[in-house]
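Please go through the sequence line and C-alpha cell line underneath and see whether the fold suits the sequence. See right below:
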Amino acid sequence: MPGPGAGDYGWLKDGCEKAVRRASPGRVVVLQPGLIVGPHDRARRTTAWLRRAARGGPMAVPGTLGRPLRVIDVRDLAAFGLDLLSRAPKDDVEDYLVPGAPGNGSWGDYLDACIAATAGRAELVYIDDQLFVDHEVEPWTELPLWLPPSPQYAAAWTTSCAKALAAGLHCRTVADSIHDTAAWLFAPGGEREAFENYRHFGAWTPFLSAEKEPHAAKHPRTE
C-alpha cells in the first residue's frame, strides 16, 4: 500500500477503490465522505477553531454566517457503513456520497458552536472573503474549512447525499459534533493527542498568524 508521499491523493484513492472492486466483485460498498468531523479528529481543522475560540478576543472569520457547510460526524459515517454491511449481500457495487446532510448546520452554526463549547470567550467578527484573498491567506490550510467563492470550489459544500439519506444515513447536528469534539479536546491529554505529530502534519498548526488576524478583525463586514 503506497504511503502519502507516493502520488496524488485523489488518484491513489480511486486506484484503491478499483482494486477492492476487482478483488471482491459484487460485494463492495464505497462511501465517499466530504469533511469528516468528531472526537479524536487529528486533522487540525475543528480542533484548530476550538483552540482559537478558547483564546478569546475578536476572532476574524471569513464569509457570512449563512454560508452552506457540509460535514459528517465520523460516528454517523461508521454507523451508516456498518448498517449497509449488515444487510443482505447485493449483486452490484454500491456507491454513496456522504458529505453530510444539508440541514445539519451552516458555517455560522459551526462557528457559534465553537464559541459555545469554549465558554463564549471569543467574539466572531465576519470579514469579507476578498480581504483574506488580498492578504494571501491560504484556503483550507492556513484557515481551516475556508474556501473563497470561486468556480474551483463551487461544489465543495453543495454535494448531495440524497441517496445515502434514502438508504438510512442519519446525521447529527454540527453543534452536537463540536460539543463532543470539545469535550475530548479539552479533557486531560486531548490537546496532546490532537496536535501531536501525525502523518504528514508534523509540528504544523493551521491558523492565521498573530499579525494577520488582528488586521483582519479591523475590517468587519458592514452589510
